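To close the section, here is one more complete example, presented without commentary so you can practise reading it yourself. The ligand is magnesium ion.
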Amino acid sequence: MADLPKTLDIVAPFFNEAQSASAFAELLAALEAEVGSRFGMTVHKILVDDGSRDDGAVRFAQALSGSWQVVTLSRNFGKEVAVLAGLDQSSADMVLIMDSDLQHSMDISLKLIAELVQSPDIDVVYAQNDRREASWRRSQLARLFYSLINSSQRFDIPENAGDFRVMRRAVARALTSLRDKRRFNKGLFAWAGFRQKALPYSPESRASGTSKWSRLNLIAFSLEGFTSFSVIPLRLISLSGLLAAFAGALYGAKVLFEVVFFGIAVPGYPSLLVAVVLFGGLNLTLLGLIGEYVWVALSESKDRPVYIVRDVVRSENAASKPTPGLLDG
Ligand code: UDP
Ligand code: MG
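Output:
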């Protein structure tokens, strides 16, 4: 990987971000100028409209300059899939993935690119969010999540590392070869491997609109991480089942011992009720969990495409290529 990179693709998904369209287009133009003068790379911008319900795609098309394309998906598929749709379109030596809500600054983008350009041995430089979680409980939950999910793998999913990253062509190709339909990007980035380097940063606060992540979303997303990348929850439950059975056997032996040698009649109701409720609950939890894994297996086995493209709009100077995911009609 010795050749100096000559081209850079910027992949940015957006969903209902019409208000930040012109500001983000300006940021991209400034970034492009800087990347050109500092690293001599030509820039192409790939924006993915993830089924926005506002006129964001039109506004971006008006505001963007230079070489760009806006890929509009047929509906909202989620950021993880939108990023894949962008990567599918990319063919440059380096790819930068960033958000279009202005939370990812030009300054950090340049630092990421500079780091990768200067480190021929590194394949990926990712921005690692060093802003501490607002609440203690939430940060503990996050820590628990990562220690659980990383406990049995040959690769580590780093904490606080998102999609904001720059990578070489080989890595982008590796990512597009992973066609998981239920996508958990953090896991896929880690699974793909390569030599990765972290760059600490603090994201800007959102310029307008709101984050698309609700608490419920976050829980679902964490579950996605487990069912796509970890069997740990299943193993933990098997283990707790084993422990419970063992405790039950001990208790049974104790009762038998008391009856045979001391003639003590054991009052039965409370212990019976506890056992029934406890194991009923455990059983249902386990069933639900297995259901989650089965559901993932089912979605993956259906062999639907990961996303569908509605249309692609390009600047006149952008090279026209066949679009994966675009069904001709
Ligand atoms: N986004 C998307 N599809 C979605 C949700 C979000 O393409 O279904 C985009 C969004 O427009 C933004 C980026 O993904 O550019 C990050 O989303 P958001 O700001 O909601 O996440 P946060 O910054 O809170 O992690
Ligand atoms: Mg954001």
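Once you have examined the tokens, check your reading against these statements. Residues 7 and 272 are 70 Å apart (CA to CA). Strands lie at 7-14, 42-49, 67-73, 94-97, 124-129, 161-168, 196-201, 309-314.
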